[in-house]
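// run 5 | inverse folding | seed 20
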């Protein structure tokens, strides 16, 4: 008889919550969460880079990277992978210029956010307030939403 499993079970969590199977490999729930967060961040990065097309600072198309506006260290679970918390910068602007010219970065960031109808203060309110820990099922749903954004 074929059993029907809950969504969490389909994602790989066993009944005791001790192991998760992913592509035939057993991992702890913590490892599964880290793996899924990595996949979510890759997808988030792709969505942000496709959305913006060019570096928001210098306008180049080459070597684009997604930059978290509210730092990942400050952001809650939602802010890590929310597209409003990202902007495209080229490698040079993202890795070097941002540290050399922080005042100019802030001006660029604020101009970018105004064009989206947002402000840095709004993002801080949205993404720095505590949020409940996301389950594997929640993380999976966010990842699916990001993947759908790529096809639109």
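// decoded
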């Amino acid at each position: 008889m074929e059993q029907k499993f809950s969504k969490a079970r389909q994602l790989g969590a066993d009944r005791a919550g001790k192991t998760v199977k992913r592509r035939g490999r057993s991992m702890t729930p913590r490892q599964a969460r880290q793996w899924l967060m990595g996949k979510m961040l890759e997808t988030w990065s792709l969505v942000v880079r496709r959305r913006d097309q060019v570096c928001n600072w210098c306008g180049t198309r080459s070597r684009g990277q997604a930059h978290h506006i509210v730092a990942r260290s400050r952001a809650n679970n939602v802010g890590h992978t929310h597209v409003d918390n990202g902007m495209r910068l080229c490698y040079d602007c993202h890795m070097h210029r941002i540290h050399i010219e922080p005042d100019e970065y802030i001006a660029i960031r604020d101009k970018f956010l105004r064009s989206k109808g947002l402000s840095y203060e709004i993002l801080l309110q949205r993404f720095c307030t505590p949020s409940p820990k996301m389950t594997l099922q929640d993380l999976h749903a966010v990842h699916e939403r990001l993947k759908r954004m790529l096809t639109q």
